[in-house]
Amino acid sequence: MIRTNPELLTYINELYNKKNNGITEEKHNPKQRVIEQNKRYNWVYIIKKGITKCYLSDENGKDFIQEFLGEGMEFGEIEVFSGNPSFCCIEAITELVVYKISYIDFNTLLENDKKFNRLVIKAMAAKISYKAPRHSYQQSYPIEDNILRLQQLFPKLTEVISKSDIANYLGVTLRSLNRTLNQLKHRNEN
Amino acid sequence: MIRTNPELLTYINELYNKKNNGITEEKHNPKQRVIEQNKRYNWVYIIKKGITKCYLSDENGKDFIQEFLGEGMEFGEIEVFSGNPSFCCIEAITELVVYKISYIDFNTLLENDKKFNRLVIKAMAAKISYKAPRHSYQQSYPIEDNILRLQQLFPKLTEVISKSDIANYLGVTLRSLNRTLNQLKHRNEN
DNA sequence: TTTGTGTTGGGACAAATGTCCTTTTATAAA
DNA sequence: TTTATAAAAGGACATTTGTCCCAACACAAA
Questions:
Q1: pLDDT tier at A79, thresholds 50, 70, 90
Q2: Which domain holds residue A73?
Q3: For this UniProt entry, which segments traverse the membrane (chains A, B) (predicted)?
């Protein structure tokens, strides 16, 4: 739900502290967009502190939240390899601190630092493997099952994330989310 | 819909023909499973010829098709990096020929062959970036829109892929798929 | 204070989708 | 040929989810 990658963060911290690798730091306020959809960038980011949402919006104004990204999560790296403009939008939810690496420096690290190379690949493998069961579950089960699953995986959910973000994450309307939460509440009372 | 990766296939072909890299060939008949869910393997595969489906099944017997994989597509590589057992099942749809590389040889290539390394990363980036819009679209739009989208992206769909596979790809029941196809047909007749 | 604006919550109804069941057809096995 | 078996198609009904509203509340800006 809120993904993290401590292993990657630790390594980037080391790199940042050790030498001049072209890694810089940047701060963002809540609701600020770090990356916009369909634009081109020359930076790869790694979250040092805070939470963002990663989402796609379509022509009809519907947003679909891919993932909530926490510490150590990388974004903007896919476009280094695909050569495409950004396919999603990254927006800060909390106060956010990110590390920033230019494409050039990122590629240099990839080629010359085996550990970095392996960590980047592992991060991508993780993205692939957590998307699969989520997609599968969301398609196959009703809203209620998905809410219960989320609450179990991440109990503090509603403290951090707004209702409409949760709805957009589950791919349902706010109305449906509220209705289902209500049914769950009443069922627990009896 | 049926993903391919010609660039990777070309390179693996070269490797296979050139020297002894530990790459072997293997054939499978339709409906045969190359990889089963939750099992451990020591092989990475690349499709030389044919089509497979990649799907997750859950406790309740529901199958959700992640993707149809065609020539040049790689599978089993995620587990090299995650260290987990296979998270999906790969089943041949047509006659299938695959290249097979052991984890050891795969890792050796990754470390020593920069082009191979880059192609594997690119393949993973592609997987991430096509999953996102698909997931988004399927969650946000009704079955009809999704069928129309599929028909446009891949007109010969129903010739190759069974109805129930299409339903499992869209995450809907066969009944709903049929109903929607029927509605579309009647609408076109008038 | 008043005036917005965003978030939360829910009523009433419509539309989409699922469940269960039956039939037909094609194709393979005996 | 007969017999199974799987795929395709659809009827009838139940359930889920969406759409379109409106109301209450918090909180910030004027």
A1: very high
A2: 2-132
A3: none
